[in-house]
Amino acid sequence: MTGNDKAKQYGVTPQSQDFNEWYNEVVIKADLADYSPVKGAMVVKPYGSALWERIVRWLDDRFKETGHESLLFPTLIPMDFIAREADHVEGFAPELFTVSKIGTEVLDEPYVMRPTSETIIGHMWSGWLNSYRDLPFLHYQWGAVFRAELRTKLFLRTSEFYWHEGHTAHADEQEARGEVMQMLSIYHEFCRDVLALPVVRGEKTASERFAGAVATYSIEGMMRDGKALQSGTSHYLGQNFSRAFNVKFQSREQKEEFAHTTSWAISSRIIGALIMTHGDDKGLMMPPNIAPIQVVIIPVSRKDNVEQMVAEAETLAGELRAQGVRVRVDKREGLSNGFKYNDWELKGIPVRLELGPRDLENGVVVVKNRNADDKETLPRGEAVAGMVARLADIQAWLLQRATDFMLENTVTADTYDEFKAAIEAGKWVRAFHSGDPESEKQIKEETKATIRNEPLDGSEFFAEREEGVCFHTGKPSGYGKRVIFGRQY
Amino acid sequence: MTGNDKAKQYGVTPQSQDFNEWYNEVVIKADLADYSPVKGAMVVKPYGSALWERIVRWLDDRFKETGHESLLFPTLIPMDFIAREADHVEGFAPELFTVSKIGTEVLDEPYVMRPTSETIIGHMWSGWLNSYRDLPFLHYQWGAVFRAELRTKLFLRTSEFYWHEGHTAHADEQEARGEVMQMLSIYHEFCRDVLALPVVRGEKTASERFAGAVATYSIEGMMRDGKALQSGTSHYLGQNFSRAFNVKFQSREQKEEFAHTTSWAISSRIIGALIMTHGDDKGLMMPPNIAPIQVVIIPVSRKDNVEQMVAEAETLAGELRAQGVRVRVDKREGLSNGFKYNDWELKGIPVRLELGPRDLENGVVVVKNRNADDKETLPRGEAVAGMVARLADIQAWLLQRATDFMLENTVTADTYDEFKAAIEAGKWVRAFHSGDPESEKQIKEETKATIRNEPLDGSEFFAEREEGVCFHTGKPSGYGKRVIFGRQY
């Protein structure tokens, strides 16, 4: 699409009018991603890729700081590996991509494209592990995984998606469980401090566990339509996979034992969470801490001074870069200023600066925060010197807005009628539940709501310990606190 | 393998005795990579992955500096896309991985796992391109690609390997050819300045071109057995792919034109080149500029002062880190100093420091360069302050050694007998060749040697313009200079 074509098609369906349509349009029009000719797969475009690279970089640095090492395992996995852990194959079989021919050779034993890598990593570990001295294995890899999806939604539901998968092996359960909680904490910190996403840390119920896990923990965020999005998971796998793949070692006491393993992941879905938590009717709102472009400068020029004003804008950009700010000067030709303003608002750039000849003369610059209604005219030096603080303010504003929204749209319910009314109204519901899987299933069928998680003791949201009676079965609560129900992506 | 098992199996077959065996052992024993249960695919282990990450980081920074943008295209490609460019399908068909089932659904139109992405990128471009104002597209992606290999050799020949593939589209041939040469220069600079690999830049003959290219340029390095390894390629694709995928635009003159496209790549094979260019009988030699660990410190202790000496080693490490040096302290227990020395020499760490209680008392440290025979005992402050310069010296030494080796093992030949004798002796041969493809083919069948490339005018190696008579056909030289023949990996 050229600039002019885009101008014609300017604008997105307002978020408040049709959230799904807003999402689909904003992803395309902001140039984050596009549909591909491969069913269910997307193309991540430069703006989306720059965003993902920043996500990868932050997480990767934290993984390394906490002693983890990256590896690269094959994309293909022998089909029979998947079958070796009973729950695992049941969970993944319907989604597998099968490779049965290489060159002209038809394979006796087909491969699958990895839906996740516990199995092949377990296999490799069994060859690498001998003694407790070799442990822990603190491994992770970045890459693509493949799970068939019936309906594509860019970033949120694609057959191929991008992620890291962490895989660790430990000599005992306590250490493994410590790892699981450490990684959940890192995910929580990342969401809160970098993406400005308030998330609820908690444990999933048995029916929502990862296929093959003993315990699954998640972070859950609320989108602006009230639905939940599971934004990261961390699993304690017990000895399930180590038994299936013979990952054993000689203990300090000279006994043969199976390792306790974990796995954990955040995927490119998190970009969907970012979009759906922060946007507004005009488009995206990028949190400054992750924004590939934090400030955009629009040189406001007449036909006869384009080059001069671009040069002046570049000078201003240099002053901001010296403060560590990520800046882009919009030098595109043949587009109106109004189009450019709208375009960068749609892309969610936190701050826009406008610099015209008169501003230059007066030593001022026009400043527009993405989250503000009005422009400000500031002395240029002040605008530059205050930019880092301004960006921090916008970051805090976004986290506060999202937190307020989540709190305002979470209600308690003590009867099924209250529960259904709240779910229907797009709320999260805090309620007592017995823990009975059959009841969970029935509630899901009737209301499309599931237990998002049981908030962890001590976490900042919804974690109060409380006793009560299950709204659905009348049995005593199974968790010692209310759990979070919601519809989900 | 535990440390003790490794100690028992210490040592590698000397490079001078059996180069292939040396290579296979060194990759495994240095923990760079391992064989996997997937035919032809490897597992890249932490040391290899750290090395690859550093390669990726350097190149990625350069791509961005030169205005390129990263994207992520699907791993799968519709089979019929591959068939659309005639040379392309002929080149890749025998190596393709076919996906014909997703979940339980058998596909009418199978997908292939990408062997390279010109086709699907061409398809996407045709949707994105309208006007000359949209050009150039300066795109690249990092990822895995899949080409069946009959015999696995870790890093060098694996069915799945890692790379970036650059893809650019331009309004005219001149700009596209400029891009091709720019990327070849970046590859050359990377090999020379970072990996300490002397490489010959040049154009491939028609029979060695990329499937679908108008012109292919390569950088070729000489391994320590005299064989060549093509270490990077840059292709001018003309309008072949843009015609096949309808990548057209309205020119400044309002005419419809097809874009001129390029592609370029360096893959994880480059790690094979690094190993085979720099190693010696004891193992790897990592160039300091790419080494994940530049200096290893061995605390030399008795049983009663292990903790103290580790703490002292960490203090020393901190002093080096303050100089920007990448340091590892070897804290492994239950291993002899001798084992540790050998282990880190095998891994090719540029500098080893030994710190014992008496050294501490005397304010000295023992320094051993990987490329030197003898240890030095230096005042500690001097060793620390001189480390950056020492690493630079080792870097320069490696490039010089590899350059000398390449020059010493490249000979000229003017008759077929001279040619065959030199090839048989493991040399590169500079010779006049007619350019006749049939003659090239015959030479290859008889000697396994191919034309590596025609060195570019102005490049530092073997580029002198010269006229002469083809040693094989007696016809006049087709290149205005001698071309480089050699056996290849």
From TrEMBL, chains A, B:
GO MF annotation, one: proline-tRNA ligase activity
Compartment(s): Cytoplasm
Entry EC no(s): 6.1.1.15
Aminoacyl-transfer RNA synthetases class-II family profile domain span: 40-287
GO cellular component annotations of the record: aminoacyl-tRNA synthetase multienzyme complex; cytoplasm
Keywords recorded for this protein, A-Z: Aminoacyl-tRNA synthetase, ATP-binding, Cytoplasm, Ligase, Nucleotide-binding, Protein biosynthesis
Main location: cytoplasm
SMART domains hit by this protein: ProRS-C_1 (SM00946)
Main EC class the enzyme belongs to: ligase
Keyword match Nucleotide-binding: yes
Protein name: Proline--tRNA ligase
Organism, as annotated: Deinococcus ruber
